[in-house]
Amino acid sequence: MSALVPGLGQLVLRRWWRGSALLVVALLLAAAGAWAAQAPDPVLTWLLHPDALPWLLSGNLLVFIYRLAAAVDAYVLGARPPAIPALPRGPAATLATAGGLGVLLAAVALPHAAVGYATYRTTEVVDNLFVAEAPEPPDPPIPAGPDAVTGDVDDRTATDDADDEAATGDAADGVEGTDRDRQPPSTRPERPPAPDPADLPKVPDNPWLADERLTVAVLGSDAGPGRVGSRLDAMLVASLDTRTGRATVVSVDRYLADFPLPDHLADLYAANCPQGDGWRYLNALYTCGLERIDEELAALYPDAVDPAARAVTDTLATLLDLPIDHYALVDMAGFVGVVDALGGVELDVGTPMTVRLSPSTPKGKWRTFALDAGPQQLGGEEAMAYVRMRDSEGDRGRMARQRCFVAGAVAAADPPSLLRGFPALATAIEEHLVTDVAVTQLPALLQLLLQVDLGPVMAEGFGPPDYRGGDHVPDVDAIRSRFAALLDGEVEDGDLEVDDAIGVCP
């Protein structure tokens, strides 16, 4: 009885003072738990504070000792009552008693062991994943000048594979791009009037509200076993209006060529990465940063965990004419691990598809995946095949599938799934995700996400044929104008709404 409710067994044995003291502590702990369940936001925010996790470990250990002591004390009191003479016991009775007591004490210890493990792993992930200090805030994007044009030279072959055979196969997509030398101006429309202050999320003194917008670049790398180098397969930018809860997710075509660069990168990129047509494309900027200008980028971004990812983020900010606060970079193994840890992602695949992919893990093999049309639960490998496959629409269809998958993953990441898959999820995130979010920013970020009422999520892709032509040169004016309209709520016909994303995907 005291294993379930400390003090209850002592009261049954008429040890009133001892039982009452233990029971009062149990009631106080239960009241604290009830309060935390009713107001989870401040509790979760506090738990992510860098100094809170050691306190949680210590508190969990103290509660375990208290519960264990109450159970053992009740056993000792009840096993040999003073008024009843001790009876001799045989070996079987002694063994059964010891076994039963061991099972009971293990049941007391199990939840505390689980909480302790989760706390310890969370501490490890937070320490290893997030940077110690917040990076400097990003400068406003500056339109590229005429000196920022990149060159057209020989094909890069060191990191090319069969996936690139369609890279230049969409010349018939048909829309001419905008010459970067014209320095396209910002086309951002005037923001709509702010909502009534009474309707704003209540996040007092939260630094994330300073600019009323939180914008993050999500970068997917194709790094994996047996693959040379690392290129970007997916580039998405997610922006949340913290006043209204309206979110916008756009995917940027990785095969944009002669894209606008921020001034501090233009000369560096043009001078060091001109060898091959492959270097013209936006996804090669990350490879160039890793292989050719890593020292220069480290000097430009001395506080960056991944200077090449920071360079890509700044370039996306220049292309979209919007400062990007942070980035997150995940490789193929991390993608597969996160999906598997969530128990898969449910999607309604629009058309059947077959694709052959390289392995995401060191012991994996090349596999051919055949996905049927219709609703289905995709595991990590199947989801990777879905988001990386090219069909007759080329990268345009690929980007649409990536945005649809993101919507399905958001729906799959409910609290029960996160708890069930926590060990695998923590490992995948720790080993395969890179971000520049600082540990000290986590409490305020979580507080913001918990208290902002998420509204409609608009998603769109900036690729052919509407936003670049057959020469791969982007129509920067069209991209900026459309993106600004999406951000300001002036467009209600994005090519995908997350609310409807669990409908039929491409």
Write the layout of secondary structure elements.
Layout: H1 8-12, H2 16-38, H3 40-47, H4 52-79, H5 91-129, E1 213-221, E2 232-241, E3 247-252, H6 263-272, H7 284-291, H8 294-300, H9 307-320, E4 326-330, H10 332-341, E5 345-349, E6 353-357, E7 367-371, E8 374-378, H11 380-388, H12 395-412, H13 415-420, H14 422-432, E9 433-435, H15 442-451, E10 457-462, H16 476-487, E11 496-497, E12 504-505
Parallel strand pairs: 1-4, 3-10, 5-12
Antiparallel strand pairs: 1-2, 2-3, 4-9, 5-8, 6-7, 10-11
Helix pairs in contact: 2-3, 3-15, 4-5, 5-14, 7-9, 10-11, 10-14, 11-12
Overall, the morphology is: elongated
What value does the Rg take, in angstroms?
Answer: 28 Å
Strand order of the largest sheet: 9-4-1-2-3-10-11
Distance between the termini: 57 Å
Helix-strand pattern: HHHHHEEEHHHHEHEEEEHHHHEHEHEE
Structural class: alpha/beta
Percent range for helical residues?
40-55%
Spans where pLDDT lies below 50 across 5 or more residues: 140-204, 494-503
Average predicted confidence as pLDDT: 74
Relative strand content? 5-15%
Number of helices: 16
What is the tally of beta strands? 12
- Strand count, sense and closure of the main sheet? 7 strands, mixed
